[in-house]
Amino acid sequence: MRVNKTRERLSKGETVFGCGLQVYRSPEIARTFAAAGFDYVFIDMEHGSFDLETVQDMIKASVDNGITPIVRVCELLYSLCARLLDTGAEGIILPRVEDPAILKEALSWLRFPPVGKRGYGVNPTMIGYEARGFHEIIEHQNRNTLAVVQFESTTAVERADELLSIPGLDIIMVGPADLSISLGVPGQFEHPLLVSTVDGLIEKCNRHGVVPGIQTRSTAMAKFWAERGMRFVGAGAEHGLLLEKSRETVSQLRTASAAQPA
Q1: Does residue 236 register a pLDDT over 70?
Q2: From CA 125, how far away is CA 219, in angstroms rounded?
Q3: Long-range Cβ contacts of 163-169 (<8 Å, 24+ apart)
Q4: What is the pLDDT of residues 48-84, one digit of tens each?
Q5: Please, are residues 56 and 78 in contact by the beta-carbon 8 Å criterion?
Q6: How confident is the model at residue 98 (pLDDT cuts 50, 70, 90)?
Q7: Which helix (H) or strand (E) segment is 242 a member of?
Q8: Where are the domains of the chain?
Q9: What is the distance between the terminal CA atoms of the chain, rounded to a whole angstrom?
Q10: Parallel, antiparallel, or unpaired for β 16-21 and 40-44?
Q11: 260 three-state secondary structure
Q12: CA triplet 48, 27, 59: central angle to 5 degrees?
């Protein structure tokens, strides 16, 4: 059975980098991200319009090429989390969580008993068609599944110590866009209030033994937060990377063409 490489790196105190899949319905992008060297791919079912079958193909392409597939669900529903894990997702991102009781319940869906409530419905693709017993599969899946929760509001920040103390939480992922709106500084990602708030979350994560993470919109923003202690760092999404590189290429070509003698 495959090991969650992102979890292994985090357990050693390393920093991991990922990129989002939000728009383009192609498993090839996951393969491309793997070839580029990203640690994980963040498959977005909250703001992306992917259906379950498309995500299944993306997950399969990811695991076949050695990049960790982590999926953000659109709602906190057991049926969504369980089906994605059975499909082979190696982590689930829970969005918009502010209530400790709701987080505790949602985290229980991500692992089998006795530590959780996940139903046992293992399909062969999830374990690579290996002949394994119940005990082996349960122990392996519980250890290798990453549980990620998003902090996106001032309410979540105010309840951070209570949320971070819930067993089974591996990573928080700050959503800077929604958090900036909640703080009253929408889109001002370098605003001192946003920066100090996120710095405070990093400190609290470290105190509780939870990995601090953030999903950013650019390479520069990802570098900024990695240098400040974030260890689970998302650098934009596929559509942004393509547009950025396309603009850069066209600009260079236009410049080269303009430099030619008439």
Answers
A1: yes
A2: 34
A3: 163/97, 163/100, 163/103, 164/204, 164/205, 164/208, 164/210, 165/208, 166/100, 166/103, 166/104, 166/107, 167/107, 167/115, 168/107, 168/108, 168/110, 168/111, 168/115, 168/116, 169/103, 169/107, 169/210
A4: 989 999 999 999 999 999 999 999 999 999 999 999 9
A5: no
A6: very high
A7: helix 238-258
A8: 5-258
A9: 63
A10: parallel
A11: coil
A12: 80
H/E stretch holding 40 reads strand 40-44
Torsion of CA 132, 136, 139, 140, to 10 degrees: -50
CATH superfamily of 5-258: Phosphoenolpyruvate-binding domains (3.20.20.60)
Copy the structure tokens of residue 79: 């049926």
Q: What is the pLDDT of residue 257?
A: 82
Question: What would the DSSP string read from start to end of 48-97?
Answer: S---HHHHHHHHHHHHHTT-EEEEE-SS--HHHHHHHHHHT-SEEEE-S-
Give residue 35's identity as a one-letter amino acid code: A
**Has residue 262 got a pLDDT over 70?**
no
Distance in angstroms (rounded) separating the CA atoms of residues 18 and 6: 10
Helix, strand, coil percentages for the chain (3-state, nearest 5): 50, 15, 35
Residue 187: name the closest of 217, 214, 167 by CA.
217
**pLDDT: is 124 or 218 the higher one?**
218
pTM of full prediction above 0.90: yes
Cα 224 to Cα 227: distance, rounded to the nearest angstrom: 5
The pair of three-digit structure tokens given for residue 242, joined into one six-digit string: 């393509």
What lies within 8 Å, CB to CB, of 53 at 6+ separation is: none
Q: Taking 80 as the threshold, does the pLDDT of residue 21 lie above it? A: yes
Q: Enter the tokens of residue 167.
A: 């067993």
